[in-house]
Records
---
Amino acid sequence: MAEFLQQFVNGLAVGGIYALIALGYTMVYGVLKLINFAHGDLFTIGAYLGLTLLTSFGLADRVGPGVAVLLLVVMVMGFVAVIGIILERVAYRPLRNSPRLSAVVSALGASIFFQNAVMLIYGARFRVYPQNLLPKISLNLLGIYIPLVKILVLVVCVIMMVGLYLFIQRTTIGTAIRAAAIDQEAARLVGINVDGVITLVFIIGPALGGLAGLMVGILYGQIKFTMGWIYGLKAFTAAILGGIGNIPGAMLGGLILGVVEALGSAYISIAWKDAIAFCVLILILVVKPTGLLGERVAEKV
Amino acid sequence: MRRFSWIVTFLAVLVFIFGSVISSTAGEIKVGLMGPMTGAWASEGQEMKQVLELLVEETNNQGGVNGQKIKLIVEDDGSDPRTAALAAQRLVTQGIVGVIGTYGSSVTEATQNIYDEAKVIQIANGSTAIRLTEKGLKYFFRTCPRDDEQARVAVKAIKNLGFHTIAILHDNTTYAKGLAEEAKRLLEKDDTVKIVFFDALTPGEQDYTAILTKLKGANPDAVFFTGYYPEAGLLLRQKKEMGWDVPFIGGDATNNPDLTKIAGADAAAGFYFVSAPLPKDLPGEEAKKFLEKFAKKYGNPPNSIYSVLAGDGFRVLVKAIEVTKSTDPDVLADYLHNKLKDFPGLTGKISFNEKGDRVGEVYRVYRVNEKGEFILLP
């Protein structure tokens, strides 16, 4: 039982990261019907920016680790959001009225561009976050070990997701985003600035992706320019699993994927972990083609 | 008539241009480097390129080989078998005599037949999978040893260290799986050591706590991980964070200073690995001189033994061309198989057997100390 719970907790920690990245995919898809393949690389950029800001200013020594991490979160989210806006302007906006396939190809191109840009700037070798940035304390609950950092990461993920959900559901701007997701033309007719909404989506999505990158850096310590690919793929799967275009769906999908992976590797086979996760995806899509929460096809985001 | 003279002039110009192109390339020997310049192992590939560029420069400064300059043509294999096959096809159309590379066994395997059909000498530097030289390919060589040799040394180390139950973990790459299965085969013949766990992880991920939790459940005396250093570093770090105090043993793909950086010195301490000697532990004057030159040119000594092994591949190829005064692949292959004996390489003496494998003992056992340094065990 202890081992089961331990694996469950292991899965939740990974799943939280997947969920946070999945939000970026799902929001962009909701509004633009575009799979933003460059999203995984924005995640990588977040991780690298975090490292640069942390080490080049000696943040942790100047203001203490807690404040440093908070500052980092704000700065990384801001910078990656700016890159997200530029990405939308340069790679997606000129193709707004082109066939959807063109935009997808453009997204893949942007992904390759970002990945290689990171490699050229930072080099091909692994970069490592400073050790002991946050205190390495582990809680021990009935034989289940949980590092404090992981709890922190999960809490941050949940806060971000709930905050985003409330923002979309309860505010005027959120309503505008939902309106643009349903019908861009109609939204324009009632006076919604659709370009503004799309820019906003490309602020929120990349900011969350960048935050996820920063958290992976702090949590695991090791970052690499190719890491966006595998996380992007998993998060994309999570978004589909939960019902793409649906925000609670992305959260649920991410957490489920993480837990299924952990339990699958624990009780079936480690080597078949990904196969198990994708089998679950296929099963769910066979039963519910729109994904777990993807019911209201008309109202996305 | 006037038109005719125009045509003649035109042809004359054409002949002149092509003639000059041909004469300018006739004095060159082209050698290819196929390495991972991008992708997961890009750091290895970029260092391979640095090593070869240094050696080519040195050879050309000394007048080249038999009066001909050497030209290095670099192609990126992207750490990926499909990209590598395309790279190999591009290289063989450029008239290369031989190619050095590449690092990963699965990547090399995708290109072996392309070079063999084009009759190009291929000298791999990091591909240790057994089956690469079991195919009877005439033009394939490698300067690194094979995994069965590595498995033998690893099993010996496991027994010497007094472990009785062992968990084996690989990552499903050609290399890691081959090494894991060979070690398993050797251990099964032996009654003193029992295998309690055998499985593979997915490389390229960050969170291996699920795997470690499962490993811990099997309760082994030690874990033999046959994969690469990024995963090994993360495993060591997360094992330490879990508070699980079990010794890990790695294969030669964990031999990279980045291992300590990823794991942190405190988590890496006590990690054993089997490897060809590190650049800093290379015996002999040849190696010392080379390391000095490398550090002078690039500011730091080479990190990876495989880049130095790539350098050795280049040096034996040059030696073969020099001695045989030929660039005929059959002559060169015959020379490397049968006549090259105890060539003073950077990584020790080099001879090849009839399969193209390097002969002789290369592997050593290392242990990581408390400062995170790799210490050669006697």
Note: The CA atoms of residues 95 and 102 of chain A lie 7 Å apart.
---
Amino acid sequence: MSEGTAKTPLEFHASLVKAIAETGDRAAFETLYRYFGPRVKAVALRQGTDPGLAEEIVQETMVNLWRKAALFDPAKAAVSTWVFTIARNVRVDLLRKTLRPEPDMTDPSMTPEGEPPPSEIVSRAEEAGRLHQALSRLPAEQRLVLEQAFLEEKPHTEIATDLDLPLGTVKSRIRLAFRRMRAELGGGE
Amino acid sequence: MTITHHASEALLLDYATGALDEAWSLAVAAHASLCAECRSALGDMERLGGALLETAPPHAVDDAGFDAVLARLDSVTAEPPALPVASDREYVLPAPIRRYLGGDVGEIPWRRLGVGARQVLIPTGTPGVTTRLLRIPAGKPVPAHSHGGLELTLVFSGAYSDSTGHYGRGDFQEADPTLRHQPHAAPGEDCICLAVTDAPLAFSSPLMRLVQPLIGI
């Protein structure tokens, strides 16, 4: 972009969402569409959705991204995390036609987070880089169960049936993989 | 408030991926409203979902689809940033539950269950799963029972104890058919909790089994 500082892809994406929120920047929107659209579509197709419906999920997800751009907080999440949650909610709504109750972050009864200790405040860019690296180093069997859970949206019981594994094995593979990822994120341990 | 009993990782993960049905999701969302630790775990799971989404091999989208979206943007109303609601009011029930019931514990139509307890059913779109708010009188036991299926319990006020431990505000219990227990409400304050079940409770007492259909539990 114009200021000449090299941005990581993550900072670049966050700046595009900001441009949409502040000025309704359609060029910024198109860049995000070209990047995330094909990924959201790939995930929908993996779930056995027919191509027409997969395209509808992409379009709804991107319209929601446009609509909710002002709600995006780059200090709290990477754009990819945010898009994952929007696409997930669109799939629950369009495919499963069910509701997914969520905590209301503005609820006065919400227990406050407390300030994270300084060691946990790593930049989102650094964090995403570490997460991608850790994913690529994950044993194939752990990566497979994670993909089935997150990309194919299968509950534990269904993963166990499909892979012909005991439920306990699926749970422990997911647990191991998640612990490893969390350790990379520097929290939770 | 110290929460010592959390939702299991498997349940949190099914919620984070979107695989969990509405009634169970309501219990997880209500627990996460009260439990910063589980909220943080859910946040990490969503980050993992984002990383998996980003590294998934992309699949080409339709150009016509992009044009259709552009044409829709003019008529889309942007959502303003979310601001915390300033309120002096303290709620017993977290927002996801209040939204289903239309109010807090003092504003909802409690019905007598017969054994001194009261309940309010919470309608959800999950077939075969019963979601209810229970109010157990302070100091009183719930008749001993086991579970035909899965039962999730989340405490909002007061407390109860059973052979597995003590459950206070925010604490979450997952009971499966292997657990037979007799929860006992702690003295001092009525125990108000959410209970989500996919099978009727199996009461140990023949008398309870006899009146069970009449009191609707």
Note: Chain A has a mean pLDDT of 86.
